[in-house]
Amino acid sequence: MSKNKKLSLSGDSTEKFIYKPKDLIWAKMKGFTPWPGMIVEPPLDLLSQQRRANTKCVFFFGSRNFAWIEEHNIKPFEGPWKDELSKVSKPAAFRHAMSDIVKYVDDPAEIDAQIDESCGMGNHATEADFDKIRDGLDSDENPDAAAADANNGVVPHVVGSPDESEVPPLAGENNANADAASSPVVSTTPTAKSQVKRTPKAKSSAAIAVSSKQASKAASAKSAAAQKRRISSHQTPTGILGASSGKRGRRAASGDADQYESPAGDYDGASSSSARARIETEAFLGTLTKRAPNAIALLDRPVVTRPETKTIDMNSRSNTLADRDIVPSDQTFGFLGLGMMGSTIVKDLIYTGHKVVVWNRTIDKCQPFVEAGAEVKDTPMDVVEAADIIFCCVSDPKGAKDLVFGNCGVLQLKDLRNKAYVEMSTIDPDTSLDIGEGIKQCNGRYLEAQIHGSRQEAADGMLIILAGGDRSVFEECHSCFKTIAKNTFFLGTDVGNACKVNLILQTILGVSLVGLAEALALADRFSISLNDIIDIFDLTSMKSPLLLAKGKEMAKGDFNPQQPLSHMQRDLRLVLNMAENLDQSMPVTSITNEVFKHTKRLGYSEHDSSAVFVRSRF
């Protein structure tokens, strides 16, 4: 075990230990005294559990189970604190744990073998269980199929492992481990009634690895686990395990009692062991049958794939844009940010004859625009120097402020006289006020021009422009706005009004999308055709082109981003922050925001906002 020095904030040095597998330690769980344990590689089933940062997988002596423990609750076993921790009056379970760690120091083979065995069985059983759920077969169909699966290394069912108990380090299994290890192994091969029929299928790499390693030991491992639980139920002292007994009682009441043996159980040989295995397996398969529909729906959830980034086609032309009579301005326009909306707007400006200078964080995105006639600069400051009016269109308020106030940003050019800055990013009013004040202090003019619409609407020149700020800048940008928008609104000289109106519109859109998604998800559960629902919706007074388009995307499962879901959730967050400053209650918007956040967690952040349907459906 190595250690290094780490300075605290106060300047005093303290020791921070770096742990590696097989290090003996003291570990403390909430509500329990420090317990002897060992740092180990986590079992496969423990890897799927959520855990906090800076945690280690700890094997507890005595109870011989595993848990994630935060590093600040871990100390090396050997140290000046050992005598204090080991001599305090402790129960019999703790004394057994101390003897267990001493036994490990003398002969680590037995415990190392148990740890190696536990690091695969949990995941192996889960893989077999999921196969049963997916097939949705009854346990009475074909008694000969399970034996064939066993030849392929698939264990029909493992009831549990010695480490599955939820009891913290004071678990009662610690009093019987040695006896269980030396007791005769009884075969628990499932009987004909407990076997299931499955169509062979390709297994995951994890399942194959575990199967090839443990197929030969599966029967003996199950019997050893059952023996340990049975013996522990007789020898565990009362008092210490009061909480454990309560938990097991509650488990039995909820239908999981098949995992625990009654104290009246016998140990007389293969007949009793076989009968117990049959009862446990039948009870387990019974629970699978009850929850099979929901489980299968979960397993059928579509795999999340990252949407493909489409290269902008500089040769395509919008018919709507071609019909407009646009006279380009003779001024030079700079554009910062070539994202989904920015690249489409710049393409239209170049097509209508405007002179454009561009910059983007990813320089490769600039190449198509260079070929189309735009000029590329290395920094935002260089764009400001070369242009008369500078547009900015980035993904969030932080990015917008960084381009203005950051290194090589807009304000690095101290004198902005005769220059104007137009903020098109979706931002909150406070951010817009900060940017406007900074621009004005450098003698520049500022206009906020919020764009409302999707990527396709931008390509067709059908956006809505909501502007506020300097009226002269608004007039000078007339040819640009006519290129990209069907309607333009000037909302006054007060900076922030345009941002407020845009966020209010986004609130209506977000709430409507979640309502549409949940309604279609309900129809799907009723096995009603989603296309029929959308056709009927089109005939009602509630119809709108946007909801019809989003509904069709949900029905087809086509979530090609027109407005990314992460952007919609960002807008809802900005709305809620704005409402919080006014003490305005918005419970429906808050719930809508949580729905979008959950969909982001499912992996649909970069998909279209209509992907919220996936969260509602599954």
From TrEMBL:
Residue ranges, annotated region (Disordered): 134-273
GO CC term (a single one): chromatin
Keyword field: Chromosome
KW Repeat (keyword) present: no
UniProt-listed Pfam families: NAD_binding_11 (PF14833), NAD_binding_2 (PF03446), PWWP (PF00855)
GO molecular function, one term: nucleosome binding
Assembly and interaction partners: Binds to mononucleosomes. Interacts with male-specific lethal (MSL) histone acetyltransferase complex at least composed of mof, msl-1, msl-2 and msl-3.
Recorded family membership: Belongs to the HIBADH-related family. NP60 subfamily.
Descriptive protein name: Cytokine-like nuclear factor N-PAC
